[in-house]
Amino acid sequence: MNEPPVCARCEEEYSLDFGLDPTRYCHECAHAKVYELEEELNQWKTWGIVEIAVRNPNVASYMQEWEDRTTKAEAEVERLKNDLEKTEALLHIANEERTKLRGNLAMAEYALGLKQKIKEKNV
Ligand SMILES: [Zn+2]
Question: How far is the CA of 102 from the centre of ligand 1 (A)?
């Protein structure tokens, strides 16, 4: 003997006259459920990523992964900036040293030229 279906929402017995899912809702509750689902669908269409992430653990996990990657990338950028500053400071020192050495070389070449001229006069 078949028991009449009981609505999953209002728990009233209902008939199958309307051709709705006989295992879930009565006619009134089915309409209410459709309305609720349409409202929820409209919300999903307009929610931003945060509202979706709050309701969907997969999206939240995906966002966390990208946040972790961003944090890691920002740390790497900071490290590279520090390395660049150190390299620029060393380059500045090297340029000063090069300028000093070029001056020394010019003086040495000049002195060598003078020595050569003196040698030629004495010969
Ligand atoms: Zn119902």
Answer: 95
Domain with 29, as residue range(s), is 1-46
Q: Ligand 1: distance of its center to the CA of 19 in Å?
A: 14
Question: How would DSSP label each residue in the chain?
Answer: -PPPPB-TTT--B--STT---TTT--HHHHHHHHHHHHHHHHHHHH--HHHHHHH-HHHHHHHHHHHHHHHHHHHHHHHHHHHHHHHHHHHHHHHHHHHHHHHHHHHHHHHHHHHHHHHHHH-
Q: 3 pLDDT exceeds 80? A: no
How does the average pLDDT of the chain come out, rounded? Answer: 90
The Å distance, Cα 110 to ligand 1 centre, comes to 107
Q: How far is the CA of 40 from the centre of ligand 1 (A)?
A: 20
The Å distance, Cα 16 to ligand 1 centre, comes to 12
Whole-structure pTM value: 0.52
Q: Do 25 and 65 belong to one domain?
A: no
